[in-house]
Amino acid sequence: MTDLPLDQVRTLLAVVDEGTFDAAAAALHVTPSAVSQRVKALEQRTGRVLLLRTKPVRPTESGEIVVRFARQLARLERDTRSELGMSGVGEPTRVTVAVNADSLATWFLPALTRVPRDPPFCFELHREDETRTAELLREGLVMAAVTSLPDAVTGCSVRPLGSLRYFAAASPGFAAAFLDGAPPAEALTRAPVVTFDRRDDLQDAFVRRLRRGPDGASRLRHAVPTSEGFLDAVVAGLGWGMVPEVQAGHLLTSGRLISLAPQHPFDVPLFWQQWKLDSPALAAVATAVAATAARTLRS
């Protein structure tokens, strides 16, 4: 048998979302035994282990494929009900999107305001680094993502949005104290640096490009995990950092920040990836995102 019984697929999704078999049973109004039997039957049918029985449970790589299918199926069901007039009165359309922090702080929220409000939308945004947002899409946790990866995730379409331009910047006082006229390619390997978190590689990538070598930024670094806080930390002189042009342009113009290597901007290409579904909701969001990106990002 090669078909996937929908009750079993929905049960697997419930277990993943709720975290335990007991919680999934309560959500589905069935017994925990019924949940366990459905999951086992689906694993036997597919010939693969779909769940890691941890706390909370986690899908295996094969399980992620089925979970993504379950979420897409739920999306299609909601769209079909809406088109048939079977949705509850005022029931919003839920759209889940993964987006990087700098896009979220600059151009992405204005894009969502361009989405038509009839029918009403309910957005659930997941903030993640642009190099990792595609992972949430691959795992089926979101329907669409702003990502720096141009290769389409399986089952998804991809379209370029433009590039988010960054400049290496610091406060004038910081530059005077730590750079002291030294070439940026040398000084930035020693000067304190601000990063978003431990996985943030943008500052290191800039220094490696500037030096044309393997050495990155200084190991003396401060992690500030919000886009606004990151910029405030650079303005305050805590360290230097890569700041988005669309967010910090007025600070560079006013002199509160200075560009450390103005002839070397750093462009991060961004792409929109979404499930390959004939979904009016996804189409409306994609159109609004592409239009706003075209006006805000560099082509």
Main features:
elongated, two-stranded antiparallel ribbon, 20% strand, 7-stranded mixed sheet, alpha/beta, 13 helices, 11 strands, 299 residues
Describe the structure in your own words.
- The chain has 299 residues and is α/β, with parallel strands linked by helices.
- The protein has 13 helices and 11 strands.
- It has helices at residues 6-18, 21-28, 32-46, 61-83, 101-106, 108-113, 133-138, 172-179, 184-187, 202-211, 227-236, 245-254, 280-296, and strands at 51-52, 58-59, 93-99, 121-127, 144-147, 156-170, 193-195, 221-223, 241-244, 258-259, 266-275.
- Strands 3, 4, 5, 6, 9, 10 and 11 form a 7-stranded mixed beta sheet that branches. A two-stranded antiparallel sheet has the order 1-2.
- The termini are far apart.
- The model has no long low-confidence stretch (mean pLDDT 91).
